[in-house]
Amino acid sequence: MSTTEILFWFLSALALVGATMVLISKNPVHSILWLIIVFFAISGHYILLNAQFLAIVNLIVYAGAIMVLFLFVVMLMNLNSDSEPQKNNRFKIAGAISGGCLMLIMIDVVRDAGEVQHAKALVKEGNIGLIKNLGMVLFRDYVIPFEISSVLFLAAMVGAVVIGKRD
Amino acid sequence: MPITYYIVLSIVLFCIGVVGVLTRRNAIIIFMCIELMLNAVNLLLVAFSKMHNGNAIATNPNSTVGIDGQLFVFFIMVVAAAEVCVGLSIIVMMYRNTHSVDVNFLNRLKN
Fold first, then answer.
1. Which of A81, A87, A148, B18 has its CB 3.0 to 4.6 Å from that of A27, i.e. a possible disulfide?
2. What angle do CA B27, B39, B21 make, to 5 degrees?
3. Phi, psi of A53 (to 5 degrees)
4. Which member of B25, B50, B90 has the closest CB to residue A163?
5. pLDDT of amino acid A100
6. Residue A102: how many CA atoms within 13 Å on its side-chain side?
7. Confidence of residue A75 (pLDDT cuts 50, 70, 90)
8. CB-CB neighbors (< 8 A) of A106 in chain B
9. Which residues of chain A lie closer than 8 angstroms to B73, CB-CB?
10. 8 A C-beta contact, residue A19 and residue B16
């Protein structure tokens, strides 16, 4: 096995274990910390695919900003495993079965799809993930969506302040 | 790496998120599982972008085919950040009124 393959399997295992632990942790703070590990693993995948800009943005925006926001909210509410609402087992089993069925169906579809059977994703090479090339396309072809997303951010900011205001 | 590995990894991550939304009752955990699903899709978009780019640079080394996939990931992150900002303030508001983050409390909206 080459180094790339070892890294791929390690990061995949880390992401899957982290995602599972997000589900089964009783304490919300532990769930958040596991989710941060998942985001780090996904950033590792981006670096492996040579999408360096997205790897850094994923770390800064998701692991850095969004998860800190989650942590703040959880700590503000003082949630812990005692205050965790419990669902009865019947619903848990039903949820797991329906999610598992969805997974099996989608994996079966992929197994039968001819176009992707021998396709390979380029790892460690290619330069489309570099900030120079992404910036050129972003500010040439996608200027309008970029500007609209700034308006979206403004709306979200105002919305959060209005909703969070004590009335 | 074969693209099927990435597809299967993304599917499993996505389904873990779906199971989380279905089985947990804590509104914050449900929200985190939605983030997990968004990230699974992001990973798949980047993998497909590299797949198309790999096919294209075999003929033209400077080709930028597939770069749109990575830009869409960027926009998904933008929308996710805005969504988290509004969603968490709604959860904080809900906690302030009901002193709980249990989503089953909200079935009062039915009547």
1. A81
2. 30
3. -60, -45
4. B90
5. 93
6. 17
7. confident
8. 11, 15
9. 51, 54
10. yes
State the average pLDDT over residues A47-62.
91
Amino acid found at B108: R
Residue among B7, B79, B88 minimizing CB distance to A110: B7
Distance from CA of A160 to the nearest CA of B (A): 5
- The tens place of each residue's pLDDT in chain B, 111 residues long, gives 888 999 999 999 999 999 999 998 888 899 999 999 999 999 999 999 999 888 888 888 888 888 899 999 999 999 999 999 999 998 888 888 888 778 877 777 665
A105: contact with B, CB 8 A cutoff:
no
Across the interface, of B32, B91, B104, the residue whose CB is closest to A31 is B32
- Amino acid letter, residue B4: T
The DSSP secondary structure of chain A, one letter per residue, reads: --HHHHHHHHHHHHHHHHHHHHHH-SSHHHHHHHHHHHHHHHHHHHHHTT-HHHHHHIIIIIIIIIHHHHHHHHHHHT--TTSPPPPPHHHHHHHHHHHHHHHHHHHHHHHH-STTSS-B---S--STTSHHHHHHHHHHTSHHHHHHHHHHHHHHHHHHHHHHS--
